[in-house]
Amino acid sequence: KAGVTQTPRYLIKTRGQQVTLSCSPISGHRSVSWYQQTPGQGLQFLFEYFSETQRNKGNFPGRFSGRQFSNSRSEMNVSTLELGDSALYLCASSSDGSTRDTQYFGPGTRLTVL
Amino acid sequence: AQSVTQPDIHITVSEGASLELRCNYSYGATPYLFWYVQSPGQGLQLLLKYFSGDTLVQGIKGFEAEFKRSQSSFNLRKPSVHWSDAAEYFCAVGARRGSTLGRLYFGRGTQLTVWP
Question: Is B1 or A113 the better-scoring residue by pLDDT?
């Protein structure tokens, strides 16, 4: 099976712009989670989607949003970008989203905000 | 609230030496426990996980970890390190039930350098 894919791999934006990141889970997986990784804060949970529904959300401002499509692909959107949004955004997929179910991570999208 | 502590930010070992990476967690009950590894520019790869049963779990690449409930620890070990093990290692915990089910809490990571 193909692994989790994320596009684009690298992105450069300026403050105030918005950005959309895409994640394609492993075939058959229905849960997609998003994490932000920064040197200062480490790995932080953004949100999780299962069957097109957001089931869990981390402590991020409303500028961060996401959605999941019927084919389980997911997108996350960040509006009004700030310098502090520069990070590696990781997507993980799992079969049913329970913690017992292994989360498989994609390579990430490196976002740089200038 | 769940939290994970990896006390060692950076560890350097010689190739062939043994390795132990420490992980302590704070959680109201026994969580699910994981170790992931991240190479530069890559995502996270699962090394091993603990759900229940035998407290010594075996993973990929010759790694093992031991769950010690009394110490709230889940330390990662490898008897002989290879140069290719140089990477960043993350310990994570997840809830068995409740509103945070499916969400992983990560430690800050331990960067491993291997000397030839």
Answer: A113
